[in-house]
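Course assignment 3, question 2. Fill in each field.
Student: A.L.
Task: Predict the tertiary structure for the chain below.
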Amino acid sequence: PANGIKVAIIGKPNVGKSSLLNRILGEERVIVSNIAGTTRDAIDSYFENEFGKYLFIDTAGMRRKSKVDDAVERYSNLRTVSAIERADVCLILIDANEGVTEQDTKVAGLAHEAGKSCIIVVNKWDAVENKETNTMRDMETKVRQGLSYMLYAPVLFLSALTGQRVDRLFQVIQDVHAQNTSRITTGALNSVLADATARVQPPTDKGRRLEIFYMTQASTKPPHFVIFCNDARLFHFSYQRYLENQIRAVFGLTGTPIKITIRQKGDKEDM
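Answer field:
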């Protein structure tokens, strides 16, 4: 059925992608084994519960480039990329025992670049949790540092093995998908813009001040905003980030990347 939210479970080998999918589906639909790269044939699994309808896209794990010698591995990397392309929401699985690795940042980066809603899922939490107190807060700080370009993504701690907190995934999937597809009226955007520019003056350069005329949303998945100004060169990245943070805060845009295009008066409006 095409009306479910398409969810890709992505991450490096042995992080528990198949185990999580099995836990969600409540049956051993995908063969799970601990040998890296044994999940060969991706099967989309349709699933419905009280939160909504979902289509889970299963992927074989991504490998470090040095191991991409055989065709099978190359194929599984391609499959991760194509799963991300097809997905609405990406669950980025991180191994709680290892924290964020270089491979994790690569996988997450693909989802971020593709403009997908993202949820960072710290799996195997049962193995870590009992060892010390405050672990969750400490771990979240580490994850945020490791995936610093993805501060918008919610972090969820769970265990595919024990099923702990797996049920919390569904509401978060609904939420981030709603944000990724949300449309904000031009009127609402411009009142936030007026407020933001009043609070923090736009930058000046050599006596010339950045003037921002208006802002509008061009598209969704991810939300793409176009800001018209007098001179794009004056639009410093830090000010762009400030405006992005204002938009996120006011409209509650969590779990989704945001794209901002700066245009100056006189630019062709080819959106």
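Instructor remarks: Residues 60-64 have pLDDT under 50 and may be disordered. The two ends are 32 Å apart (CA to CA).
Grade: pending
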